Amino acid sequence: MEVNYTTLSIEKKSLDRPPLEELAKVLNKGLQSNFEHVTVEVVDCPDLTQQPFTLAKKGLGGSPKLVEVGGVPYLLPLVKREKVYDLKKIATMIGSDPAFIIGAGAGPHPYAGVNCEGILNMNIAKGVVDQQTRISKVNPSNEEVPIQEILPNNETRVALLANLFFSSGEPGKVLKIHAKKRTGPLDFIASIRQTLVNEYKNKVVGLGGAFLLKEGKAKQHVMRDFSKTPINTDEELNNWLKFYNMRAPLVAVGTLINNDHGLDLRVQHFHSFSHHGEAGHYHIDVTPETAEYLGYFNTGEEIYRVDRPVETHQFGRD
Ligand SMILES: [Zn+2]
Predict the structure, then answer these.
(1) Rounded-to-integer distance, Cα 171 and Cα 297, Å
(2) What separation in Å is there between the alpha carbon of 58 and the centre of ligand 1?
(3) Is the model's pTM score more than 0.90?
């Protein structure tokens, strides 16, 4: 149960890369529409393998790229179970080695036995995998507590859809974004994205990286097992998803982009994991007074669109 790699479509487009210093300036101003305390600066990437991030590699540098695989149309209205992708093969196909891969996607249902969230975090170097990806499932016997588990090194697949940031994981300059006390309606990622939408009308800027929700709680969902009846509306979708308020500290990974780039993109997508068992798809904090975020991001040089759905729709992309 996997896609046919010989016929898999892969499109590639370049991205604009404003200098990080310029982005820091733009974001310092823009994020103030949604947060009371904002500091954005350019720093040497801290060692992201350390607590609290515990990612598979230290940095976000070295041929950084956004990679979007599949899409929501492979999940809704009904699942296309054959849409399973081995990231080891995708990394080879796009010439990424070493490939430090972080991001948000659907976990490998053939491994999990059910549909699940994937919080991607792995390194593949010369075929050797260091897999630190978590998956999160709804526990059918107690839906209030999701089940998080870590994938083994020999399981490198995602299913259906994924928004990934590839780099070689090298140290280097990154954007450090610290924001505290949310005063506006947008979540942390949407506020970054909206700032880039407003500033760069004729450029396409994509970011990938990781952020920590240091304080507070976040609304996150975990997908239940595949629906046997078609899901055609946002209301049906929200009844199928299981929503949680998950508590900090949460480590989120994913991508955002200011513009669709004519590639039918999901313009922001972050999943988070934790060391206390909770993991899922990030929507927004539910504790604006105490919410505190710390993120590290790099710009992508290009975007790869893998197996873009031919028949598409716009719902379910929140
Ligand atoms: Zn998601």
Answers:
(1) 12
(2) 24
(3) yes
